[in-house]
Design a protein that fits this description.
mainly alpha; 2 helices
């Protein structure tokens, strides 16, 4: 069971890294993002990537907790 959870955790973490890198690449500035003071609404692909990041983080935390509890 722990092997399956470790594989799930590994795949979720790699996917999470890729989604975050796609977000940084879209914003156009380096590793730490840009310092804008205007409020703007996320639309299209940017909104999907933002929501996917939240979902993947929640899945990662749940799988991590389950992995610790069941080992």
């Amino acid at each position: 069971m722990s092997t399956i959870l470790n594989l799930i955790q590994l795949s979720v973490s790699i996917t999470l890294i890729l989604v975050i890198l796609f977000q940084v690449r879209e914003q156009g500035s380096g590793l730490f993002g840009s310092a804008t003071t205007t409020f703007r609404v996320r639309r299209g692909l940017e909104k999907i990537l933002f929501q996917a990041t939240i979902v993947l983080v929640v899945i990662f935390v749940v799988v991590s907790i389950l992995s610790v509890r069941l080992s």
